[in-house]
Design goal:
There is one protein chain. The protein is built from nine helices and ten strands. It is α/β, with parallel strands linked by helices. The strands form two sheets. An eight-stranded mixed β-sheet has the order 3-2-1-4-5-8-9-10, with helices on both faces. The chain has a two-stranded antiparallel sheet with strand order 6-7. Strand 2, helix 2 and strand 3 form a beta-alpha-beta unit.
Length: 214
């Protein structure tokens, strides 16, 4: 089993490090191939760098660790290769203005997950995941006792099985929040479950309470 990670910035780099530490093989790809090569060299024999096309072709699962605007270009370009793959989407509808202030890039109530799922070919197996925590939180909270939960959202059984495997390999506890229509609950800047560190019992209790109040 091999996972392609497209984008080697804050989130892509952190996911790659955790997966390799958990025994998974990864192929990393970026616009600047030298950055992907540097990350693969750092990670050792379970990682290699490739072009975006080559990485997707050889992988069972593809993590699109890209900003939503970049996904709007990359997904149509790679649609044929993404057909049939599990696609993991950590994106949030977040942008930053010239003063560094965060703003929502989609209308209130529209999730990044619904946009990305809609861009993918019909045969792709979509899951929203790995974007619930900030990159620093994600980097520092793997393999805690008890394990920290990473929420995911999907309508697809194959995507769910892969998300669970990858989240466990990365050192976290997977917990489904719902289908794609629930993706907004685990996305920044305003999803009620994003950015929160929970163990499994706390996460289950919070989903039940806040879902009931939604
Ligand atoms: N940072 C966080 O705390 C955080 C938390 C949760 C979720 N997320 C989400 O994760 C996603 C990535 O965020 P990030 O902070 O990791 O961003 P980032 O550090 O800016 O990394 C984005 C990566 O995407 C690459 N990229 C852009 N266009 C590409 C293309 N056409 N082909 C291949 N690679 C391309 C960039 O390469 P270049 O540098 O060469 O452009 C860069 O390596 C976003 O959707 C964000 O909402 C981020």
């Amino acid at each position: 089993m091999s996972t392609a990670i497209i984008g080697v910035g804050n989130i892509g780099g952190t996911i790659a490090r955790h997966l390799v530490a958990g025994g998974e093989s990864v192929v990393v790809a970026a616009r600047d191939e030298s950055q992907a090569k540097a990350l693969a060299d750092e990670l050792g024999p379970r990682a290699r760098a490739a072009s975006v096309e080559e990485a997707i072709t050889g992988a069972d699962a593809v993590v699109l660790a890209l900003w939503l605007d970049n996904m709007r270009e990359v997904i149509p370009q790679q649609a044929r290769l993404l057909d049939g793959k599990v696609v993991v989407d950590p994106s949030n509808p977040i942008g930053f203005d010239e003063k560094g202030q965060m703003f929502r890039t989609l209308p209130e109530g529209e999730s990044s997950g619904s946009v990305v799922a809609g861009l993918l070919p019909a045969g792709a197996h979509y899951v929203k995941g790995f974007g619930t925590l900030g990159a620093d939180q994600l980097a520092t909270s793997a393999n805690r006792k008890p394990r920290v939960v990473l929420f995911y959202a999907t309508n697809d059984d194959a995507a769910e099985a892969t998300a669970q495997r990858l989240i466990r390999a990365a050192g976290f506890e997977p917990l489904k929040v719902g289908g794609v229509s629930d993706a907004g609950r685990i996305e920044g800047p305003d999803g009620e479950l994003q950015g929160r560190i929970f163990d499994l019992d706390e996460a289950r209790a919070t989903i039940a309470t806040e879902g009931a109040n939604a």
